[in-house]
Amino acid sequence: KRVVVLVSGSGTNLQALLDAIAARGPEEYGARIVAVGADRHSATGLDRARAAGLPTFVCRVNDYGSRAEWDAALTGATAAHRPDLVVSAGFMKIVGREFLARFGGRIVNTHPALLPSFPGAHGVRDALAYGAKITGCTVHFVDDGVDTGPIIAQSAVEVVEEDTEEGEAALHERIKDVERRLLVDVVGRLARHGYRIEGRKVMLPDEQ
Ligand code: GRF
To answer: Which positions does UniProt annotate for N(1)-(5-phospho-beta-D-ribosyl)glycinamide binding (predicted)?
Structure first.
């Protein structure tokens, strides 16, 4: 399976996928990353892609006259790599109608909270501020909402005392440790076994 990964930031989820595929081989893992896209040139995930010899593309919202034009450009740039699956890993933009029309049902996102709790761009901060005792991460399919698509898998992470003092960075790092493993597991299983989405349910065979 061909995978395009979209990033905005450090790209450690991307790196986890690259490392897993390098370790197991694309055939056994079931997928290879064919390109990495970003919404900003500063995304260090792009450096990780280049270090892996992968093609990259950048679609900045401000380079286009409208959101719809940006969405069309992102769709075209992604489609050029003929992905079977698109993985949004820390991609901080909401994809539009054209992107969803083209790749809907094949876009996976990872979010650092237990959806439907704490959706949006500050899930870690919001869980901490709310006083949640357990948070975690969610891998889900992207639909036309914000972090509202069918859930594929989740992992829990306990909020501990020092998180409250140290703030969200420590908690987010602990979540990311779990999140990277969850994303690598899910992407591989989706690629190897295929899946069906029935309403909000994702039918994904367990590893035989
Ligand atoms: C991840 O926790 C992702 O869920 C959130 O931002 C973080 C991105 O981390 N949206 P990285 O860029 O993969 O290191």
So the answer is: 11-13
**Nearest CA, atom 1, ligand 1:** 90
110 is in an annotated binding site: no
Using the predicted structure, report yes or no on whether residue 116 has a pLDDT greater than 60.
yes
pLDDT category at 207 given cuts 50, 70, 90 is: low
Q: pTM, whole model, 2 decimals?
A: 0.96
Residue 153's Cβ-count burial label (10 Å; 0-12, 13-18, 19+) is middle
ipTM value greater than 0.90: yes
For the CA of 180, the nearest atom of ligand 1: 13
**What is the per-residue pLDDT across 18-74, written as a single tens digit (0 to 9) for each?**
999 999 999 999 999 999 999 999 999 999 999 999 999 999 999 999 999 999 999
